[in-house]
Specification:
Length: 193
């Protein structure tokens, strides 16, 4: 005769399933934390690459000029000195009244401002906003050139000291950057000639 019910159960117990779920949860949290750190590092590296390319392109474009007259975001886009991934188009309105504007954004989705220096047209500034503290410190302390011959005149972390070769405060030290970078929404401005 065939047994309809087996007194021994097969399968997994509730305790075993809860253990498996706990292990999956711990691994998921670790994976998310690792992914967040990797994305922050990627954005910082992308920002450094963009900045280096942007400054090189501007200095090359204006190499035969006596000043950076006319340099601003719109002209930088028109002259092709910014990478396409920096250009963010915004359309307002619809139909025939739609207006599309172009702004420059960095990988942290902060504003990028390119302009002629207000005190000397033979210099220009590039400002990157929306940087978190970690990115601000890393970017500000990057080697932007070993001397004034690199074209770098100064670096200013919003609300902090203007670091320059003449003041002897370039390159920016880790201690200075850590003290000047806020938790969120930092702006760094580079001045070049």
């Amino acid at each position: 005769m065939k047994k309809l019910y087996d007194s021994e159960q097969s399968g997994r117990s509730m305790v075993e399933m809860l253990g498996v779920l706990a292990i999956i949860g711990v691994l998921s949290v670790g994976g998310i934390a690792g992914y967040s750190k990797a994305m922050a590092k990627y954005k910082t590296n992308q920002t450094l690459d963009q900045l280096s390319m942007l400054i090189t392109n501007i200095r090359t474009l204006y190499a035969t000029q006596s000043s950076f007259a006319g340099l601003d975001n719109a002209n930088a886009i028109a002259f092709g000195v910014v990478s396409s991934d920096m250009i963010k188009k915004t359309t307002t309105g619809s139909g025939t009244s739609a207006v599309t504007s172009e702004d420059l954004k960095n990988p942290f989705n902060g504003e990028v401002t390119i302009k002629v220096d207000g005190t000397d047209p033979a210099m220009f500034t590039v400002a990157y906003g929306g940087l978190d503290k970690s990115a601000c410190i890393t970017i500000a302390t990057t080697d932007w050139g070993g001397s004034a011959a690199s074209g770098l005149v100064s670096i200013e972390i919003e609300g902090g000291t203007v670091h320059s070769w003449t003041a002897g405060t370039l390159p920016v030290s880790l201690v200075d950057a850590a003290g000047e970078c806020e938790e969120n929404d930092n702006t760094i401005t580079w001045k070049y000639n």
